[in-house]
Amino acid sequence: MAERLRSLSIYAAKCVSGTLTVFLISSLINYKDLTWALISVILVLSPDGKDSVSLAVTRIKANIVGATVGLLCLLIAPVNMWLVCLAVTIALCLCYLFKLDTGARSALAATIIIMLHPEGQHVWDTALERVIAVLAGCLLALIITFVFHFRDKNIALKDPLTQPAPENSIRE
To answer: Which of 1-10, 96-105, 133-142 is least confident?
Structure first.
């Protein structure tokens, strides 16, 4: 139970750190549409400590696949129900092909984020802006993952109580 609570606390701290950082950076650069960066941060962060870095990298690769599929499908025709279905299918197949199965949900979210745009806005401006926001959110999530999980590993490596004692030594 204590390990689950610790894991929950770390995950909550990562999510809050990501949210606060997106809001801070957005206010510093006067960027108002922070939704897509926030969604990307939350999707890339992992609740588990184990394999969190490799999982974050996999989700980032999947986001790139999804964003690319979304952009390429915008070249085919105006967005409609069938084009979104095609894009989702292509993104899933590419994730499978590139062995990014654990990041497939992130790829699907990125595909839809890129393809859908508000009425009256130019498709390409919106799509490219969202690609940048998704990638920025992914990068931020990776940095947060490194900060939270490499810090723990470094502390464990430097803590003399967790290291085996050399032969013929006495621990206090």
So the answer is: 1-10
- Between CA 158 and CA 167 the distance in angstroms is 18
How much of the chain, in percent, has pLDDT values that exceed 70?
A: 84
Range of the structural domain that residue 19 is part of: 15-153
Does residue 104 sit in helix, strand or coil? helix
Could you tell me the pLDDT band of residue 131, with boundaries at 50, 70 and 90? confident
Sign, CA dihedral 132-105-119-73, equals positive
Q: Is residue 134 part of a domain?
A: yes
Furthest C-alpha separation in the chain: 76
Neighbours of 158 (CB within 10 A): 9
- 158 found inside a domain: no
pLDDT for the residue 119: 56
Q: Say if CB 66 and CB 108 are below 8 A apart.
A: yes
1 belongs to a structural domain: no
Question: Dihedrals φ, ψ of 31, to 5°?
Answer: -105, 120
Counting the structural domains of the chain, the total is 1
59 pLDDT higher than 70: yes
